[in-house]
């Protein structure tokens, strides 16, 4: 596969690393306006780093756009004359609907809208995808690309905003929970490094239990909570302090923020 990543910033480079680690490209172009910080990627012989989006698109089939929303329409406008039947356009741009993409380049392109997260760099992204009418013919290809770097789910476009919060912002939410657990562990006597090791592997184990068993979280909680024991005591205190409620409220606030910048 010949892949171009237009906008090699935080997410674009995470995708680039995921693709390189999974050996998922025959050639890869990485673009940004100031390429100094990413020239190192050229040590991979498949990778070309350039400021020239048109060159990248002319030499690639899979075009992954990972620029800030404010730059996207202008970039599409500047390359739309190059787009053809060989191209699959994959947007990762938050709050930028398929109708807006089609408004710039027309309906006659394979357009996939995707919402990966930065864990794509280590092959563990939860990525949601949807497509325009024409793109339905390439949705399996898009799934195959993202499944190499984690897990993908096809969803209706109307759920893309919610997927952004749960999956993309979700990485930051889980990081904060791991960090808070780490701070608790330090207070209980572990040194900082040990504390983080305990927190992140316990988090990984808890998620793996659900993924591998298909169980409901409460079923797994019931296995841990000894009557009158320390787990239920801690859990109930966390709930008295609003743990579930604050997570749900944060998720909804994050969702409302996307609505706000979509309407601007
Ligand atoms: N970060 C995340 O976890 C996630 C982000 N997203 C979405 O992905 C997109 C990118 O986010 P993020 O990576 O955080 O943003 P960054 O600002 O880190 O990356 C955007 C990149 O685009 C480059 N860029 C700007 N203009 C051009 C241009 N004309 N041609 C080529 N490249 C250009 C910038 O580099 P330079 O200034 O040098 O050109 C920059 O490296 C956003 O739309 C965001 O909503 C979606 C899911 C998760
Ligand atoms: O915070 C943001 O707005 C972007 C979208 C999801 C992750 N980063």
UniProtKB/TrEMBL annotation:
Q: Which reaction does it catalyse?
A: L-proline + NADP(+) = (S)-1-pyrroline-5-carboxylate + NADPH + 2 H(+); L-proline + NAD(+) = (S)-1-pyrroline-5-carboxylate + NADH + 2 H(+)
Q: Which Gene3D superfamilies match?
A: NAD(P)-binding Rossmann-like Domain, ProC C-terminal domain-like
Domain (Pyrroline-5-carboxylate reductase catalytic N-terminal) ranges = 2-93
Q: What is the first-listed, main subcellular location in coarse terms?
A: cytoplasm
A single GO molecular-function term is: pyrroline-5-carboxylate reductase activity
Residues that, per the record, bind NADPH: 53
Q: Does the record carry Iron as a key word? A: no
EC no. given is: 1.5.1.2
Enumerate the residues binding NADP(+).
6-11, 66-69
Question: Annotated pathway, please?
Answer: Amino-acid biosynthesis; L-proline biosynthesis; L-proline from L-glutamate 5-semialdehyde: step 1/1
Which UniProt keyword terms apply here? Answer: Amino-acid biosynthesis, Cytoplasm, NADP, Oxidoreductase, Proline biosynthesis
Where it sits in the cell: the answer is: Cytoplasm
Judged by the first EC level, this protein's enzyme class is oxidoreductase
Outline what the protein does: Catalyzes the reduction of 1-pyrroline-5-carboxylate (PCA) to L-proline.
Q: What is the name listed in the Swiss-Prot or TrEMBL entry for this protein? A: Pyrroline-5-carboxylate reductase
State the species of origin: Maribacter arcticus
